[in-house]
Design a protein that fits this description.
It is built from 17 helices and eight strands. With about 350 residues, the protein is an alpha+beta fold. Strands 1, 2, 3, 4, 5, 6, 7 and 8 form an eight-stranded mixed β-sheet that branches. The radius of gyration is 28 Å and the shape is elongated.
Length: about 350
Amino acid sequence: MRGETLKEERVEDRLLQLLRTVAPGTPLREGLENILRAKTGALIVIGDSPEVMEIAEGGFAVNAEFTPANLYELAKMDGAIIISSDLKRILAANTQLIPNLSIPSTETGIRHRTAERVAKQTGALVISISQRRGVITIYKGNLKYVLRDVGVILAKANQAIQTLEKYRSVLDRVVKQLSILEFEEAVTLFDVSRAIQRVEMVLRVVKEIEKYISELGIEGRLITMQLEELVTGVEHEGLLIIRDYATAADRSPGTILAMINSWPAEDLLDLSLIARALGYPGSTSILDQSVSPRGYRILDKIPRLPLPVIENMVKEFGSLQKILNASIEELDAVEGIGEARARSIKEGLARYREQLLQEGRN
């Protein structure tokens, strides 16, 4: 299962990279759109490796600068166009591609079938534009993706942003409740697991929106701005929660979060699995177990408090409650904390606690 998930993640990363290559705003996409509007169709190979050149026959050696206009004009001829890997030169046009016919293909049209086989045989990025259907399809290796209309993608991206807003709102409430319980020393593994679950749910929506942004190119600038505003600090918050409660000494917070990220959706719904990922053995009843935070996340809320100082405090006191109960003199004795900073920490913790209680009343 883990191996399959890693494979899926690699495919997803490759797809995002390809979508950025052909995204609106790029010269390549401009040329493709011109061909699409002219209803001429095209077969384009991005790559000049020996594997590509070996299956190319005939045509014209162009070796001209790549521009959208040049691409459009050359697409008026039959045959394939070969472009350099760096997208700077158009190397050949009106070329016939002869891939290995034994390579399986699910396509029906000759142009698309050739594109799929060339992509599988050479590993190059191959683009097929259907003259009849007006569709742009990209291939690379075993990957195939049909580019969608910008308006359709924008609609889906805006819908995903609305979902993200709701998820972020729920996450903020859950994390705020966790903070209150931490001050009251009343946290259970249920509260911790639920907060991590909500962090991961937000991050999964973010991945979906990032795919839309890659495909939208310059048309996705507003979506990008909204996304950045909505996800600021989410992953950091999740890592601090894990750092506060994880008992698995052999796994870092980043490793644990990545592991949870690799789970299928149904596993994420099981909070006891999250608790076990943190290092707590047992069945669903473990969610009732009381736990105490080390204090990383709450201390991170205090302005201008460096991480090395936070680490020294956690190392010295061991838990948030002991830090809360420590006197100014005891805090002053920690390396990196003078009397002024000790007072600032006490005041900052009291202020944050009062803020949480005030918000809770409202």
